[in-house]
Amino acid sequence: MMASSIELDRFYSEEVEFPPRLLASHIDTAEREVRTLLAGMRSIQRPNIDPSIEYDIVQTGSSYEGLKVKGDMELDFMIVLSHPEFKFIPITSDYSGYRKIEVERQFELQANWRKTGPPHSFQKDFSSNGYLIPSKIYQWFQSLADRAVIENKSKFVKKFVGNFPARTLILNIWPDVEICVDLVPAITIDRDLFVVAKPLKTSPDLWRLSFSVFEKNILSPLPSPSCHLKALKILKYLREHDTRLEETSQFASGLCSYHLKTASLHLLEQRPYTQEGLHEHLHQLMDFLIESMQGRELNHFFMGNPSSLATKAKVPSSITKEKLRLNLFGDTFMNESTLNQARERLVRIKRSLPAVIQQHSGPGAYSCNIY
């Protein structure tokens, strides 16, 4: 027995979709509080030494892509950094998806060095061998943020949790409601292309490329009733809450939402305008993932892939025309046993989808603190 599009639509409306008005309210609150925090950080910076914190927040992630599902309220903000005295130059690395950032002096600012410190302190504090170091930037950013949180007067309780590279600002807006905001230092590489301070353990001078803005530019214009978005959100919800049904689910812990989104983008490229209903779209997405896990191949959507969607989103040709594809299911990123267990679990979910949906619905189902 298969779940019909009507049943899936009902499940989507009742269990999956995050209430739009509440989402907008939470986003407004978070953006306002983060802008206040950043203003506090700017007020305690060392002039001409510390990186400049740009005023525009780069909003990324599911809440801005139309992909937010019920559950924890999480937002992702890239905080763009620059420096008036130095130019940041991206250098291709041996690791696909990463760049080195060369620091090149443009000119020397006039400064009272007896007040601000010795010459070249930006280079001494934040670079090594001529390259900007992500961990140094992140540690400075977090120290500045910690000080600003203490000094900032807000009606909401604020605190930071976690450590490099995943540090999260927690806003307690109601007694039982939290907004979690990831603040990620970033450097602009090209229009809408950034690198973020999330290096490889083996190469601490590398910055990770972020394609979040391109993904948002592709997904957010899709109409809210789009079956592409609904199918992805339903599968995302099932993955995020699958440990309720199977505690050791590798579909939940072995895969991440980025794998699901990548698969959905590939399907959107293959079948941009189809008349199939929600049932067909969901099963196509599950089949695509199952086949990708079986073949141990899920290529990054942008790198080495000159697709029409990438062209429309204005992804730089230097990215789409790279010779090597980045396989997200390759040995570098994914353990074979984990991938096999995740695939087997998704096969079982697909086979018994009506029962799985029933278990996530009604009395006793997951209830997040959103009201």
From TrEMBL:
Family under the similarity heading:
Belongs to the ITPRIP family. Belongs to the mab-21 family.
Q: Where is the Mab-21-like nucleotidyltransferase domain?
A: 64-220
| Occurrences of domain Mab-21-like HhH/H2TH-like (ranges) | 228-304
Chief subcellular location equals: membrane
In its UniProt entry, what is this protein called?
Answer: Inositol 1,4,5-trisphosphate receptor-interacting protein-like
Quick check: keyword Lipoprotein in the entry? no
Q: Which InterPro entries match?
A: ITPRIP-like, Mab-21-like_nuc_Trfase, Mab-21_HhH/H2TH-like, MAB21L/cGLR
